[in-house]
């Protein structure tokens, strides 16, 4: 049960609630132990001919009072134990999500969304059941079995109790064997459910691509295959449970058979009274639920243990990138960037992604980067944001090694518009204001105007209150890019990074956006990454990257005069523009 170490603090903090619940359970069990005694007394009074209407009314009143007390007590223990287990589910799910938010981006590159969703739903539910119903089934059956056996020994001959309970060791061995099998099969079920959830999430998120490539049938088949795998594993678990539960009932029925035959013989021989026989069989009936519950509790605890083990694997993960112990607090950064002899190799890669990069960008400076796909431009940006950790002594902000600065200060100072623009399923206004705690409507609209998306937004019936679909599917590619630019601008960062953020807009729209950005970019350090020369030609310094190294650098005019890669790229784009103009 070491898997539940993660929730040990919660269990200790709520020990009072659990203790009260268990006390109510014990009280209910004590009340149930009284009922067979009264039934035996009632039967013996009938056998002796002493039962009359008045005494019958007394028995009826006692049964009604006991029924009310049992019902009320069961309500109390359910509120204490089930209510606490619900709070556990709530807090564990919150804690799991909070922990996921602390993990580095590389973790999400290696783990599927559907699998993580299954952890937060099915696995948390299984833990709640184990520490709610499972806890009840640990205490209730064992207390009831022990006390019932003691009372039975004081009611009838020990030989009858002994022979009637003879099947119990077989029952214990059965429970232990099936418990291990159920544990293994439940882990396989949860893994299959994770895979199925991920398949559904991925297919629905990519619905447009699926329809564009006419792959609906193929996606349905993939879902059917995943669903079949989940079904097969569920059936494998169900087959074990289908054998297990009846087997428990059969073993308990043997006890009843022994009691019926042997107890009947003792009653006929007048070695025990009819009242004692009725009480004994009633007590034996009380043992049916606890005996079956032992099977259920093993099943439930095994499921909860397997799920807790899966959740613990997430909690055991630590973010790869964290604040240094002696991190320097710099809430206000001017935006000076210096990169010194930076060479960086991705984990598992054979060759470096960046080689001996050295750049100095003064506060307020504007540089641009161009290069083929895979030349290292985005990797360099990710290192600036510390989404990856650079080698010590290679990247500096305002003269301080970036590894010595707090992550919050670095990322608060940088406004980043990535290639893949992610928008949330919220209103347009909420998406633009995502990085700001309290943004005024006028500020949101100003940012949208600079990004040249304001006129598009107001054309929607609900304007800025328009709800976006998943990943912003309501908008076109160019509109999504411009909303993302507005979001970065509203943050008012000291450093603005645009990573190929105008690729989905036409040249006229690009020109309007750049004119609007010129005023903003003059007030802060900016890094522009683009494939179009028109986007970057006004930068103070342009870097040409190839295979992770800076192969050319200079202003637009200087690079054209070098007649190298940049000049070749410029000539190709001019030719493309001329062809496009001729076609128009």
UniProtKB/TrEMBL annotation:
Annotated TM spans: 21-46, 58-77, 135-153, 159-178, 243-265, 277-298
One GO cellular component, as annotated = plasma membrane
Keyword presence, Cell membrane: yes
Can you give the residue ranges of the ABC transporter domain?
Answer: 337-572
Q: Which SUPFAM superfamilies match?
A: ABC transporter transmembrane region, P-loop containing nucleoside triphosphate hydrolases
- Bilayer topology: Multi-pass membrane protein
Q: Which UniProt keywords apply?
A: ATP-binding, Cell membrane, Membrane, Nucleotide-binding, Transmembrane, Transmembrane helix, Transport
User: Where does it reside?
Assistant: Cell membrane
Where does the ABC transmembrane type-1 domain start and stop, copy by copy?
19-303
Which GO molecular function terms does the record list? ABC-type oligopeptide transporter activity; ATP binding; ATP hydrolysis activity
User: Is Disulfide bond tagged as a keyword?
Assistant: no
- Record protein name field: Multidrug ABC transporter ATP-binding protein
Taxonomic lineage is: Bacteria, Bacillati, Bacillota, Bacilli, Bacillales
């Amino acid at each position: 049960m070491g898997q539940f170490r993660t929730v040990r603090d919660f269990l200790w903090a709520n020990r009072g609630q659990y203790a009260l619940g268990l006390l109510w359970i014990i009280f209910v069990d004590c009340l149930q132990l009284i009922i067979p005694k009264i039934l035996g007394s009632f039967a013996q009074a009938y056998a002796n001919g002493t039962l009359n209407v008045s005494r019958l009314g007394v028995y009826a009143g006692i049964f009604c009072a006991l029924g009310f007390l049992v019902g009320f007590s069961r309500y109390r223990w359910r509120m204490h134990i089930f209510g606490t287990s619900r709070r556990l589910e709530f807090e564990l799910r919150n804690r799991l999500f909070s922990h996921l938010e602390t993990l580095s981006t590389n973790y999400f590159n290696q783990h599927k969304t559907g699998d993580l969703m299954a952890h937060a739903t099915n696995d948390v539910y299984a833990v709640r059941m184990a520490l709610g119903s499972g806890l009840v089934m640990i205490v209730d059956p064992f207390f009831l079995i022990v006390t019932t056996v003691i009372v039975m020994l004081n009611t009838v001959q020990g030989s009858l109790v002994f022979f009637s309970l003879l099947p119990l060791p077989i029952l214990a061995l059965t429970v232990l064997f099936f418990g291990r099998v159920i544990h293994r099969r439940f882990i396989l079920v949860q893994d299959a459910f994770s895979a199925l959830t991920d398949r559904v999430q991925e297919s629905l998120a990519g619905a447009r691509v699926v329809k564009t490539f006419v792959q609906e049938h193929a996606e349905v088949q993939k879902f059917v295959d995943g669903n079949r795998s989940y079904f097969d594993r569920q059936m494998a678990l169900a087959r074990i449970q289908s054998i297990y539960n009846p087997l428990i009932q059969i073993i308990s029925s043997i006890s009843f058979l022994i009691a019926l035959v042997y107890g009947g013989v003792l009653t006929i021989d007048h070695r025990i009274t009819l009242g004692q026989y009725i009480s004994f069989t009633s007590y034996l009936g009380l043992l049916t639920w606890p005996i079956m519950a032992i099977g259920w509790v093993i099943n439930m605890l095994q499921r909860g243990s397997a799920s807790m083990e899966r959740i613990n694997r997430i909690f055991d993960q630590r973010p790869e990138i964290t604040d240094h112990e002696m991190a320097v607090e710099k809430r206000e950064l001017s935006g000076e960037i210096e990169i010194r002899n930076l060479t960086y190799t991705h984990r598992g890669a054979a060759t470096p992604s960046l080689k001996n990069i050295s750049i100095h960008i003064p506060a307020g400076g504007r540089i641009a980067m161009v290069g083929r796909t895979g030349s290292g431009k985005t990797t360099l940006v990710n290192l600036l944001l510390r989404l990856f950790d650079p080698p010590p002594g290679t990247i500096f902000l305002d003269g301080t090694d970036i590894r010595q600065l707090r992550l919050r200060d670095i990322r608060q100072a940088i406004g980043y518009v990535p290639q893949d623009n992610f928008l949330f399923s919220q209103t347009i206004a909420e998406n633009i204001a995502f990085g700001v705690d309290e943004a005024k409507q006028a500020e949101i609209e100003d940012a949208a105007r600079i990004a040249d998306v304001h006129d598009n937004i107001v054309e929607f019936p609900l304007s800025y209150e328009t709800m976006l679909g998943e990943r912003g599917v309501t908008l076109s590619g160019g509109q999504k890019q411009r909303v993302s630019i507005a979001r970065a601008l509203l943050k008012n960062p000291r450093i603005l990074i645009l990573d190929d953020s105008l690729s989905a807009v036409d040249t006229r729209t690009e020109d309007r956006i750049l004119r609007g950005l010129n005023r903003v970019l003059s007030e802060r350090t900016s890094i522009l990454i683009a494939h179009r020369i028109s986007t970057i030609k006004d930068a103070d310094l342009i870097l040409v990257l190839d295979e992770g190294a800076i192969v050319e650098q200079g202003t637009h005019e200087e690079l054209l005069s070098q007649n190298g890669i940049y000049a070749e790229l410029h000539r190709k784009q001019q030719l493309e523009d001329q062809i496009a103009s001729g076609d128009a």
